[in-house]
Amino acid sequence: GPKVLQIPSHQIIDMGQMVTLNCDPVSNHLYFYWYKQILGQQMEFLVNFYNGKVMEKSKLFKDQFSVERPDGSYFTLKIQPTALEDSAVYFCASSLGGSTEVFFGKGTRLTVV
Amino acid sequence: QQQVRQSPQSLTVWEGETAILNCSYENSAFDYFPWYQQFPGEGPALLIAIRSVSDKKEDGGFTIFFNKREKNLSLHIKDSQPGDSATYFCAASGNNNNRIFFGDGTQLVVKP
After folding, report:
1. Checking phi first, is residue B53 left (phi over 0); if not, alpha (psi -120 to 50) or beta?
2. pLDDT mean over A67-84
């Protein structure tokens, strides 16, 4: 089926540094999402993105977070600066429309040390 | 406020039994309820979904029973197999809201 690719699968970064997580969504999808998961538990919504804009973001989407998808390339999540509590698995997802099937990538495990 | 709640947190059944996973939600505007299956080290994958106009949806050995009045639903996994051992997330969205709200998940173990 359709695949969402996430690069890299693992990233270790020093606290205070910048990190960019990359996502290649399903090719004809229009809506993009980032979720955060800690210890295989609840999937926490961070942000959704459509038509070049953030549509909604949660309280977890701190000021240090930003997203963009320049010219239809990767959909990225940037954290600058990183903090220890940002350590988690970040899942990118995409969908064709609202209330339609959302496809998830395999996640990027981010470890901030 | 948690929008989607799941119970139990973990469930162990024997191979061949029916596993029943429960879910309830807060927002009456939700109209789309997907269930996701997640294996360790993988992303969630859509298993089966139901819209609020239906009260039942079957796909293979998976069945969703939906009660709009009570704002709850359940996933029944018939003839459970060890390969069904995973975490199952109930989710909800609606009102053309692009955001999917997830429950905390039920960790299912199927013993051979």
Report:
1. alpha
2. 93
Chain A residues whose CB is inside 8 A of the B31 CB are 99
The residue of chain A nearest to residue B39, with distances taken between CA atoms, is A40
Backbone angles phi, psi at A94, to 5 degrees: -145, 155
Chain A: nearest CA to B95, how far in angstroms?
Answer: 8
Alpha carbons within 13 A on the beta-carbon side of B58? 3
Shortest distance between the Cα of A34 and any Cα of chain B, in A, equals 10
pLDDT at A99: 66
Q: CA-CA distance, B23 to B17, in Å (whole number)?
A: 20
Residue with tokens 């969630």: B44
- By C-alpha distance, the chain A residue nearest B94 is A99
Low-confidence ranges of chain B (pLDDT < 70): 95-98
